[in-house]
Specification:
270 residues; mainly alpha; 13 helices; 76% helix
Length: 270
């Protein structure tokens, strides 16, 4: 059943992308405003934002099981996994960025970066900043929900997306919770990069930084792509270097997605 849910939900996401009623989050924004009005402490506030929708999902599952039996699990599970997959049109946004980068439109490319990546870190090349942004966005939209689906089921995947939505709604108030949930999937994705790319050059990241909780998923994944696909740091501050960095991030995410789908399929058949 889990494999059927996975294939259907991932297939729908690949075909339809983010959109429709399952990705319409106005209800969550309304819930967040009501929770804010109660003025709870940090963690109780997060538990209520995440727990209330999950409890509603469990209730819907129980009701549907009374009428549909086992089919209810498949329907609710598929809906939850599809809901947990990322927001926004990542492929289109990436292509828009590349189109502007190829003509040297620095202001236009900067406008297409997420707010967390809009400002360059000291000594950071433009290509590295773009790589950090698009690598993380490609990661967060697909890999953590899929991992938590296989570890904890559809409700685990949905819990991840709810934490992300809560953090975005509160402008980073729950960064610690999101970083905690990003830790395991980002390290597994880094391992995937090492296997797909230059393992000898990238294995040092696994040895030095994989267990370092201070290293963010954005930084770790950007470094992983840079080393696994042998990008030249000195060229990443040039216009063509920016294009190369983002194209490499796209290639890395596409290949890693294929690997995870194959691994999930093999494990389901065992």
């Amino acid at each position: 059943m889990s494999y059927l849910i996975f294939i259907v939900a991932v297939g729908l996401f690949a075909l339809l992308g983010a959109g429709g009623p399952l990705h319409g989050d106005r209800w969550f924004h309304a819930l967040s405003r009501r929770v804010d009005a109660i003025e709870l402490d940090l963690w109780p506030s997060l538990v209520l934002r995440v727990g209330a929708p999950l409890l509603a999902g469990v209730t819907v599952l129980w009701v549907l099981e009374a009428f549909l039996g086992g089919l209810a699990e498949a329907l609710v599970g598929t809906a939850l996994l599809y809901f947990s997959l990322g927001r926004g049109d990542y492929p289109t946004e990436l292509q828009r960025f590349l189109a502007r980068a190829r003509v040297g439109d620095e202001e236009g490319t900067a406008m297409l970066l997420s707010e967390s990546s809009a400002d360059r870190e000291p000594g950071e090349a433009r290509g590295q900043r773009a790589l950090r942004d698009f690598a993380y966005r490609g990661f967060a939209r697909w890999f953590p929900p899929v991992l938590y689906f296989w570890l904890l089921g559809p409700f685990g995947a949905a819990a991840y997306r709810l934490v992300v939505l809560a953090n975005a709604e509160s402008e980073g108030r729950f960064d610690a919770a999101q970083r905690l949930l990003d830790w395991l999937p980002s390290r597994l994705l880094l391992l995937t990069f090492c296997v797909l790319g230059d393992f000898e050059r990238s294995k040092g990241l696994l040895a030095r930084e994989v267990l370092d909780t201070e290293v963010t998923a954005e930084t770790l994944l950007a470094q992983g792509v840079t080393r696994a696909w042998r990008l030249d740091d000195q060229e990443l501050d040039e216009p063509q270097g920016v294009v190369t960095a983002v194209e490499t991030a796209q290639k890395a995410m596409n290949r890693a997605t294929g690997v995870w789908v194959v691994v999930a399929s093999v494990l389901a058949l065992l």
